[in-house]
Amino acid sequence: FDPRHYLGTHCYGLPKTGPHRLRFLLESVKDLRETLKKKGSTLVVRKGKPEDVVCDLITQLGSVTAVVFHEEVREIL
C-alpha cells in the first residue's frame, strides 16, 4: 500500500482513495490472501513507497529471479 494513494490530489486536494474504495481494497487483499493460503501459497503485503519496499523485499528474500509490476497511468491535462 503506497501511502501517497491516500493523500489529496495535486489538483483539487480530494483523496485519491476514499473510505469505500479503501474498504474494497482491504477486503480484496484479505480474500486473495485466504485463497492463496488454501492453495499452499501466501501474499506479502507491505506499506510504503513501492520503490523502497520492493528493493527491501528483494534484499530480504535473497533468491528473487524476476520482479513484475505496473505503473499507474496518469492523465495528461
From TrEMBL:
The yes or no answer to whether the keyword NADP is present is no
Specify the species: Polioptila caerulea
What protein name applies here? CRYD protein
Q: Which GO terms describe its molecular function?
A: damaged DNA binding; deoxyribodipyrimidine photo-lyase activity; FAD binding
Supply the alphabetized keyword list.
Answer: Chromophore
- tRNA-binding recorded as keyword: no
Identify the Gene3D superfamilies for this entry: HUPs
Family matches, as PANTHER family = CRYPTOCHROME (PTHR11455), CRYPTOCHROME DASH (PTHR11455:SF22)
| Record-linked InterPro entries | Crypto/Photolyase_N_sf, Cryptochrome/DNA_photolyase_1, DNA_photolyase_N, Rossmann-like_a/b/a_fold
Q: Identify the coding gene.
A: Crydash_0
**Stretches assigned to the Photolyase/cryptochrome alpha/beta domain:** 1-77
Q: Which GO terms describe its biological process?
A: photoreactive repair
